């Protein structure tokens, strides 16, 4: 979920405050952000490469996970990188020009909302494969067309939803006092005529489409996947158990979204009840919620590695190029199992 506008342009004011909460918040941005950036970019890049390898491309789930990995990298580069540069170097990318201010603002909200709905696509693919036989039997090539159409339509709709941001913000100037001296800095701020929309209406639009609706949909889809896993454990079919193995990484991805995005959703709902006379405390809570939200775009590589034998095998085959990996057994529905020598399907 995106940042509320009350904190988007006040970071420099916070620098003049020696409050302990404020210092801790800035320290979190400066120290934890580069760790998340490095880990997330490297991990998601490796994940994208793995999903493109021949053994993984034949699985429809890998297509969705590839898109999710690329999207997560963009979330970190567009969103988190800006905050790190602001607090580490006092450099705000949005304030560099009248073009970057609305464009980067639009891009930030667009990519974070897009990422939420890509996560839905990942979970829905596995949900539909388990509960609808006709969907399960579709070929990977045909499924690729559906994914392309979904992503294109999704990108356009989210772009239209966030289009007002291109007109609502612009560069301006902020005066603040340091050591009894007035300093003026450039900022990206809301236009006066858009104040009501951006402060009262837009936060709820963003909350609804970036957090609330995806959150509710993922709860339903994840509940269905967990129910199917429980039911499958009662059936001694090795093919069913293989499908369970394929479902675990997606269940974990879905759970990570539900866990790491929840703090910001709670913050949005209760922020008006936080003591307005302690802005640095609100700033610290907002910082923690934001960092947890960005962790959701970092952790997927580790979830794949821990829960998927195929993923670990592909990493091993990259590290040890001459190592012969187990062949796969083809089963109906374009699924493969690394248990026995290859047989004709």
List keywords for this structure.
4 strands; 8% strand; two-stranded antiparallel sheet; 345 residues; 71% helix; 14 helices
Compute the separation of the termini in Å: 44 Å
How does the overall form come out from the CA principal axes? globular
Task: Provide the CATH top-level class.
Answer: Mainly Alpha
Q: Which residues sit in consecutive blocks of at least 5 with pLDDT less than 50? A: 4-18, 327-345
Would you count the extended β strands for me? 4
- Reported by name, the CATH topology is Rhopdopsin 7-helix transmembrane proteins
The CATH superfamily is Rhodopsin 7-helix transmembrane proteins
Largest sheet: 2 strands, antiparallel
Number of domains: 1
Integer average pLDDT: 80
Helix content: over 70%
Strand content: 5-15%
Count, helices: 14
Give a description of the structure.
The protein is mainly α and 345 residues long. It is built from 14 helices and four strands. It has one domain: Rhodopsin 7-helix transmembrane proteins (Rhopdopsin 7-helix transmembrane proteins, Up-down Bundle). It has a two-stranded antiparallel sheet with strand order 1-2. The longest helix is centred in the middle third of the chain and has 39 residues. The C terminus is likely disordered.
């Amino acid at each position: 979920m995106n940042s509320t506008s009350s904190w988007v342009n006040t970071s420099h004011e916070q620098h003049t405050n020696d409050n302990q909460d404020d210092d801790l918040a800035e320290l979190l941005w400066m120290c934890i952000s580069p760790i998340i950036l490095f880990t997330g970019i490297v991990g998601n890049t490796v994940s994208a490469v793995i999903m493109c390898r021949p053994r993984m491309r034949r699985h429809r789930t890998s297509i969705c996970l590839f898109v999710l990995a690329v999207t997560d990298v963009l979330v970190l580069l567009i969103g988190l990188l800006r905050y790190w540069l602001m607090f580490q170097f006092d450099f705000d990318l949005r304030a560099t020009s009248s073009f970057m201010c609305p464009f980067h603002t639009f891009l930030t909200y667009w990519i974070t909302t897009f990422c939420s709905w890509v996560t839905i696509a990942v979970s829905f693919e596995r949900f539909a494969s388990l509960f609808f036989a006709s969907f399960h039997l579709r070929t990977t090539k045909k499924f690729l067309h559906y994914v392309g159409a979904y992503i294109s339509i999704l990108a356009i709709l989210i772009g239209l939803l966030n289009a007002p941001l291109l007109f609502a913000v612009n560069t301006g100037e902020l005066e603040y006092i340091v050591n009894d001296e007035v300093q003026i800095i450039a900022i990206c701020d809301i236009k006066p005529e858009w104040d009501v929309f951006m402060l009262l209406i837009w936060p709820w639009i963003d909350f609804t489409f970036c957090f609330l609706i995806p959150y509710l949909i993922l709860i339903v889809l994840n509940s269905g996947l967990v129910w199917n896993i429980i039911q499958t454990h009662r059936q001694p079919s090795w093919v069913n158990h293989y499908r369970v193995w394929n479902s675990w990484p997606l269940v974990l991805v879905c759970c990570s979204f539900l866990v790491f995005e929840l703090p910001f959703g709670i913050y949005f709902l209760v922020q008006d009840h936080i003591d307005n006379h302690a802005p640095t405390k609100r700033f610290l809570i907002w910082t923690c919620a934001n960092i947890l939200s960005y962790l959701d775009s970092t952790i997927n590589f580790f979830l794949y590695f821990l829960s998927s034998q195929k993923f670990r095998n592909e990493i091993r085959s990259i590290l040890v190029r001459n190592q012969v990996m187990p062949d796969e057994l083809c089963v109906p529905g374009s699924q493969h199992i690394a248990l026995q020598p290859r047989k004709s399907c």
